[in-house]
Amino acid sequence: xxxxxxxxxxxxxxxxxxxxxxxxxxxxxxxxxxxxxxxxxxxxxxxxxxxxxxxxxxxxxxxxxxxxxxxxxxxxxxxxxxxxxxxxxxxxxxxxxxxxxxxxxxxxxxxxxxxxxxxxxxxxxxxxxxxxxxxxxxxxxxxxxxxxxxxxxxxxxxxxxxxxxxxxxxxxxxxxxxxxxxxxxxxxxxxxxxxxxxxxxxxxxxxxxxxxxxxxxxxxxxxxxxxxxxxxxxxxxxxxx
Length: 241
Description:
With 241 residues, this protein is an alpha/beta fold. The chain has helices spanning 43-51, 73-79, 96-103, 109-118, 123-126, 137-151, 167-183, 195-198, 218-226, and strands spanning 2-13, 16-28, 32-36, 58-63, 66-67, 81-84, 91-95, 130-131, 155-159, 187-191, 203-208, 211-217. The two termini are 33 Å apart.
């Protein structure tokens, strides 16, 4: 279980402090939680604070009863938090096999191939490929998800996994997350604008102006977001960039 207690985050801009997150209080223990809201509302910043990439200016982060506020991304990864970047990192000289087996030292090549198959990639075509510019955005997203599945951590955080992929890849990405939802042993937290991703979440949190504006079960929150009168409706679209 992840607890965010009075989390705030600010940066200095033009000699003044700009608050990006304002007194965020959340407890996450559901299997699949989606965080959505308008651009600039603080969603990606919150994901990076949870992962340990950014340090909150105020508040505490508790994972399974342990205060991890002062831990960096590597220490949090060891504690059981996985993070998928909005734009997956490419590693010249590192193969897909290396990446997945390094993610979980308890697995070998056969298991790595199984995870690739689970995300819809033909293992024999990808296992020895380098994680470089020869891979498309959709391929990288799938490989990153396979790596996170191999880690099987308490909490897996995805920052806009649909960003930069084509429509075909996005349609298949939904299937991958539906499968991940069934297989994962911990919680999935996804930052997304996409209605089709929100529609498979157990719980939706709406973040705007750095604050939690809504928080509840999908059936209670999503209809309001899709209403044309909603202030965050313009942020929700099935159009893939």
